[in-house]
Amino acid sequence: MPFIFPKILKFERGPQGGVFAPLGEGVRGASSPPPSPVTLIDGGMGQELLRRSGEDPHPLWATRVMIDHPGLVQSIHADYFAAGASVATTNTYALFHDRLVKFALAHRLDALQTAALAEAHAARGAHGRGIIAGSIGPLVASYRPDLFPPRKQAVADYSAIVARLAPHVDVLIGETVASLAHARALIDAARGAAPDTPFWLSVTLEDRDGTQLRSGEPLADLALLAGRVDAVLANCSAPEAMDRAMPILARFGKPFGASANGFQQITSDFLKDNPTVDALNARPEMTPDRYADLVMGWVAQGATIVGGCCETGPEHIAEIARRLRAAGHPIV
């Protein structure tokens, strides 16, 4: 029997075009403002799936584990909600025809999308509240702007994914966007195929220089596109890069924030064809306490949408939630 998706939540766009947490008070210049509400995104899914499953890394990463261990994605979503997250990010980041066809799984695309959406909905249903964000990752490969398809193909491929996800999520989030061409294609697809669904754009930064995209293009050049999205974020980059990005994102006049990873660096081995995540190493010093220190620094700069990415887990989100509440920030 097919899964019947429950009715999704409906949100209104705010005065800056954003949804959920508003533009941070810290960038408006008011004296002694009350703490801003903060939307708390969940942490990483792929690494958490590998840890819990005990499986060896595979090029399909979180998709492979979801196939082999039904229900594990729901369990992780549930743990993030219990930790204090207000957002469940669907396990659809790499669910593209171009990724699956390499492993003779393209015929399962729709079924895998349905499974990922169903597990997020089930976790929210059990928790009783929460926002479901439909994740859309890069076409072809992460961190490889040089491999991004031509615009016409990219918009068509993304439009199909947007149309599939949008009816079943509260917000769409384009993740690990590595170039301006990538951003334009994804925004065109989101606004064309689902104009009434809020869309968050989340870019990946050069780890050693948070003022640049992975492509080397200036982050500041996103200002030309920011008016077409509901929030501008950064993800899957070093936390230190996020520190440098916050003042730039703040200038776009949209809700902004970040979800950093806990990798030592994006290695050359991971940039090869069909990589596996064992080419990357975690930073042992990126404990929940240390990561929460960094996140609260972004909040102090006006960020109102924060969370974690690869190598962050429920314990990191729990510590961020504790810090936010202690500082008086409502989690929304």
Describe the structure.
This protein is an alpha/beta fold. It has a single domain, classed as Homocysteine-binding-like domain (TIM Barrel, Alpha-Beta Barrel), CATH 3.20.20. The chain contains eleven helices and ten strands. The strands form two sheets. Strands 1-10-9-8-5-4-3-2 form an eight-stranded parallel sheet. β6 and β7 form a beta hairpin. The longest helix is centred in the middle third of the chain and has 19 residues. It is globular, with a radius of gyration of 18 Å.
Produce a short descriptive summary:
The chain is of the alpha/beta class. It has a single domain, classed as TIM Barrel, CATH 3.20.20.330.
Count structural domains. 1
Principal-axis shape: globular
Q: What is the CATH class?
A: Alpha Beta
Poorly predicted ranges (pLDDT <50, ≥5 residues)? 10-18, 26-30, 266-272, 275-280
Helix % is: 25-40%
Q: Which features characterize this protein?
A:
332 residues, TIM Barrel, eight-stranded parallel β-sheet, 36% helix
Task: Give the arrangement of secondary structure elements.
Elements: E1 39-40, H1 46-53, H2 62-68, H3 72-83, E2 87-89, H4 97-100, H5 109-127, E3 131-136, H6 151-165, E4 171-177, H7 180-193, E5 199-203, E6 205-206, E7 209-213, H8 223-226, E8 231-235, H9 239-250, E9 256-260, H10 288-300, E10 305-308, H11 314-326
Parallel strand pairs: 1-10, 2-3, 3-4, 4-5, 5-8, 8-9, 9-10
Antiparallel strand pairs: 6-7
